[in-house]
Amino acid sequence: MTGIASINPFYAARLQPRLKRSHVDHVGEPARMPRPADRDPTRWARLPAAPINGSPVPGLTSLYHSAEAGDYGDRGYPGNCGGNLIRDLIRYFRAKSVFDPMTGSGTCRDVCRELDVYCWSSDLHQGVDACEPCDRPAGAFDVAWIHPPYWRMKLYTSDPRDLSRTPTMEAFLQRYRLLIANCAGAIHPGGKVIVLMGDYSDREAGYVPLVYHTKELAFSLGLKQHCTDVIRFSHGNSSSKKVYRSSFIPGLHDVCMIFEKAD
Ligand SMILES: C[S@@+](CC[C@H](N)C(=O)[O-])C[C@H]1O[C@@H](n2cnc3c(N)ncnc32)[C@H](O)[C@@H]1O
How far is the CA of 166 from the centre of ligand 1 (A)? Predict the structure, then answer.
């Protein structure tokens, strides 16, 4: 162990990426692909300080950097998202009822159970199509939470109503519009529709700006943006362990958008 590491192992860990600069490219030198073994699993970025304010969840800012997912849902479920962000948002909005029509492995449902919040939870896996109003109460919920498929990035069911099975981008956007309209119909005036979505690169269509499309659809349905987007750091993504020959700017986040229904 070096001197610094024995005095302060946390500070030593922060210095490590600067010491291991063998994969940094210098002008005129050929680039070398870093091998996974070269990578330090922990990297440090300095975050801006957040102003002190009256928020009931002071740690909730526009940068959701926590690597902890929380003990909710099933981390092995395709497209699973951590529950801690959902928990923080429900606590921030002091929601007492949540509409969760794409529950997947039940992450939002589990958060609500812990917080003693009423949750109407379903998924196409149980035969309930989130793009239709079905038998949920109308105009009653404080919050609708959705983490939809990113078009066909991952396929979830063999049901043709599955958003991830839509044959074209246009068909996806038509059904995505029905999904957002259904969520807007479920909440009361002043309620929030919260959408976790990310952009991605499709093998044929190229770069797909789903965050942009989400906002366009939501605004066209009369929803307003309530506050800042929350940029959620994608810790634990399977793609971050891969090595690619092609050159691109890796996307390391998705975006949580918070819309409000007018009074
Ligand atoms: C990204 S996953 C959600 C994962 C969830 N956030 C979790 O942590 O487990 C998207 C979900 O949408 C569901 N889904 C796709 N199309 C649907 C539809 N038309 N109606 C209801 N659920 C649908 C899929 O079955 C999948 O569970």
Answer: 14
